[in-house]
TrEMBL record:
<dbReference type="Pfam" id="PF00075">
    <property type="entry name" value="RNase_H"/>
</dbReference>
<dbReference type="InterPro" id="IPR002156">
    <property type="entry name" value="RNaseH_domain"/>
</dbReference>
<dbReference type="InterPro" id="IPR051320">
    <property type="entry name" value="Viral_Replic_Matur_Polypro"/>
</dbReference>
<dbReference type="InterPro" id="IPR043128">
    <property type="entry name" value="Rev_trsase/Diguanyl_cyclase"/>
</dbReference>
<dbReference type="InterPro" id="IPR043502">
    <property type="entry name" value="DNA/RNA_pol_sf"/>
</dbReference>
<feature type="domain" description="RNase H type-1">
    <location>
        <begin position="310"/>
        <end position="394"/>
    </location>
</feature>
<comment type="similarity">
    <text>Belongs to the beta type-B retroviral polymerase family. HERV class-II K(HML-2) pol subfamily.</text>
</comment>
<dbReference type="InterPro" id="IPR012337">
    <property type="entry name" value="RNaseH-like_sf"/>
</dbReference>
<dbReference type="GO" id="GO:0004523">
    <property type="term" value="F:RNA-DNA hybrid ribonuclease activity"/>
</dbReference>
<dbReference type="Pfam" id="PF00078">
    <property type="entry name" value="RVT_1"/>
</dbReference>
<feature type="domain" description="Reverse transcriptase">
    <location>
        <begin position="40"/>
        <end position="229"/>
    </location>
</feature>
<dbReference type="InterPro" id="IPR036397">
    <property type="entry name" value="RNaseH_sf"/>
</dbReference>
<protein>
    <recommendedName>
        <fullName>ribonuclease H</fullName>
        <ecNumber>3.1.26.4</ecNumber>
    </recommendedName>
</protein>
<dbReference type="GO" id="GO:0003676">
    <property type="term" value="F:nucleic acid binding"/>
</dbReference>
<dbReference type="GO" id="GO:0006259">
    <property type="term" value="P:DNA metabolic process"/>
</dbReference>
<dbReference type="InterPro" id="IPR000477">
    <property type="entry name" value="RT_dom"/>
</dbReference>
Length: 394
């Protein structure tokens, strides 16, 4: 778009954000190479030597190709955000009249990449890239608004709104804009058709591209902003209210909660899954080992913490409790064992202890009695059982 470049302001810009690139498998780098080469050839990416660096991720599409995802969360945290002026979708749809029976929906493709980024702000959006064929490492940076940047929707929406101020629709046709999604609605099919062609040509002259796969051209029913529009009425897309636990929006919500938690730090492991280096089709030779068997051996709980009792050794039954008797709280524990299942140890505990603490103390005393011996400990406390099997220690 022929608009002034956008400038981004960061808090503490003199302290660069430096995050090393996550390990990417060979398959992932091979999948990203055509996309990165294309972006470089179009001038959307350029080489640089920036003090800033944030990682990228390869995301595989259903068709087998890869999409470049830039992890800009740390940059987003440091960005001085402008006041958002994105309209409410429900307010936009309420402006449509009941006589609108024909619609066109235009989805702009790679819309953010049509907005230039100021030279002074480009270093903030640099990442490291290693070519899988030449093994050359370099830094690349965006020359346009990158996807994943918190300000991109707001900035693009305002820029497009200013451009559309020069566009006038004919009487009887309404134009609705929400970020990069455009809707034309009218009473007559011919008017909507002519207006759709006119708008597509206008957008093309402004340097904007349209997603042909998502284009809904002059139809009586269309899907727009999660609603179906038909004969002047709107209804929510059933997929939005379908009973699904794992949804993109829900996962995004939980991710946002985790990222905003001051007591939680998310770190990316430096270890790599060896399976990601298996490139190509497997041969017909006999496998050296069964991966599932190996995983089970490495991840199963310790043998001494399994729920099956030992065939040999002592058997001890433990219990602990804390309750109020005649207005006073009393706490204690007991251990039962031996051939006659007699009380072999018991005693009072601190009256401030909870029942769970008493149960744990009983297990601890039983473990001390079985030191250097074999034996099975029985407890009716799910809490004590969970602590031992989760942590392997008390």
């Amino acid at each position: 778009m022929d608009i002034p470049p956008f400038t981004v302001t960061l808090k503490n810009p003199d302290i660069p954000v430096r995050i090393r690139q996550y390990p990417i498998s060979l398959e992932g780098r091979m999948g990203l190479k055509p996309e990165i080469d294309r972006l470089v050839s179009k001038g959307l990416l350029e080489s640089c030597m920036s003090p800033f660096n944030t990682p990228i991720l390869p995301v595989k599409k259903p068709d087998g190709t890869y999409r470049l995802v830039h992890d800009l969360r740390e940059i987003n945290k440091r960005t001085v955000a402008r006041f958002p002026v994105v309209a409410n979708p429900y307010t936009l749809l309420s402006n449509l009249g009941p006589n609108n029976c024909w619609y066109s929906v235009i989805d702009l493709k790679d819309a953010f990449w049509a907005c230039p980024l100021a030279e002074s702000s480009r270093d903030y959006f640099a990442f490291e890239w290693e070519d899988p064929e030449t093994h050359r490492r370099q830094q690349l940076r965006w020359t346009v608004l990158p996807q994943g940047f918190t300000e991109s929707p707001n900035l693009f929406g305002q820029a497009l709104e200013q451009i559309l101020q020069d566009y006038k629709t004919r009487p009887g046709v309404t134009l609705v804009q929400y970020v990069d999604d455009l809707l034309l609605a009218g009473e007559r099919e011919d008017d909507v058709r002519k207006e759709s062609i006119k708008l597509l040509n206008f957008l093309g002259l402004k340097g904007l591209k349209v997603s042909k796969a998502k284009l809904q051209f002059v139809e009586e029913e269309v899907k727009y902003l999660g609603h179906y529009l038909s004969k002047g009425e709107k209804r929510i897309d059933p997929e939005r209210v379908k009973d699904k636990w794992i949804t993109d929006s829900r996962l995004l919500k939980y991710e946002g909660i985790l990222l905003d938690s001051p007591k939680l730090t998310l770190e990316v492991t430096g270890l790599q899954n060896p399976a990601q280096f298996l490139y190509g089709e497997p041969d017909e030779k006999e496998l050296a080992h069964n991966c599932m068997t190996t995983i089970e051996e490495q991840t199963k709980i310790r043998p001494d913490l399994e729920e099956e009792e030992l065939e040999t050794g002592e058997r001890l039954f433990v219990d602990g409790s804390s309750q109020v008797i005649e207005g006073k709280r009393v706490s204690g524990y007991a251990i039962i064992g031996g051939p006659e299942l007699e009380v072999i140890e018991s005693g009072p505990l601190n009256k401030t202890w909870s029942a769970q603490a008493c149960e744990l103390y009983a297990v601890l005393r039983a473990l001390e009695r079985l030191k250097d011996k074999e034996g099975t400990i029985y407890t009716d406390s799910k809490y004590a059982f969970g602590v031992v099997h989760t942590f392997g220690k008390i």
